[in-house]
Amino acid sequence: ACFIHLIFYHHHSSSLKTQRRERKMEIGFLGLGIMGKAMAMNLLKHGFKVTVWNRTLSKCDELVEHGASMGETPAQVIKKCKYTISMLSDPCAALSVVFDKDGVLEQICEGKGYIDMSTVDAETSLKINQAITGKGGRFVEGPVSGSKKPAEDGQLIILAAGDKSLFDETVPAFDVLGKKSFYLGQVGNGAKMKLVVNMVMGSMMNAFSEGLVLADKSGLSSDTLLDILDLGAMTNPMFKGKGPSMNKSSYPPAFPLKHQQKDMRLALALGDENAVSMPVAAAANE
User: Fold this and answer.
1) For 31, which of 36, 90, 209, 237 could close a Cys bridge (C-beta 3.0–4.6 Å)?
2) CB–CB of 71/82 below 8 Å?
3) Would you call 135 a catalytic residue per the annotation?
4) How far apart are CA 187 and CA 45, in angstroms?
5) Which of 194, 217, 242, 258 is the catalytic position?
6) Maximum Cα–Cα distance for the chain, whole Å?
7) If one looks up domain 193-285 in CATH, what number appears?
8) Is residue 50 a contact partner of residue 71, using CB atoms and an 8 Å limit?
9) What is the pLDDT of residue 257?
10) If the chain, 286 residues long, is cut into consecutive pieces of 10 residues, what is the mean pLDDT of each piece?
């Protein structure tokens, strides 16, 4: 019994050391919008050392109060950290942070990894991947499914692709940010999967909105409609979460509409590339 206890103690203490080592990981974080701020805060709460940057530097203040360091430029953050995550609003912002003056490319080099969790198209991911790997760095794209609340709760779904060794090394961070991480293979697959997911969401939310309005205008209770949908096969967390606010005409942005529309547009372009006709998504985009 004593021997077993010793083995358990050794295993337990070594696994605690591993956890402590992982938690001490230093991570750079670029972009502190609705999503980025919540994600960086989660990393801090779980003991990671985090260095943050945002185009509007004042957005870093709250994170600094919670123990983060601040970089003046993306290049400065890359120089300081072995791993850097970015969470930016669109392809234009994602490219700008990498390629502009004082950008990621100025300091990325062998031994450093860059993880872009922004929602962009596959072409943008491939362009960033080529530039990062050209300098000897490693790249993973990791767009997420989930908006403000899942980001705050560490319940995002991470759709990663790219350098497998970098993915494996950053799993401790992904485990704090999300409830599940999928590794999807080559760069571009993460971006494509995210666009498909958001296309389904956009079409679904449009049908849901039309249903609520139709019920109301037909003299029915839209609250009763929510109850009926919730009890049937179409029940889902999104209807449950958004429906009550929509009925009250309250629309606090967890995911700004301009970004949803951008994703629908990119998904339709992906459809064109692959000769897939998507009339429902096209109507939802309009």
Assistant:
1) 36
2) no
3) no
4) 30
5) 194
6) 74
7) 1.10.1040.10
8) no
9) 77
10) 49 47 79 96 97 96 97 97 96 97 98 96 96 98 93 97 98 97 97 92 92 96 96 94 89 76 89 94 88
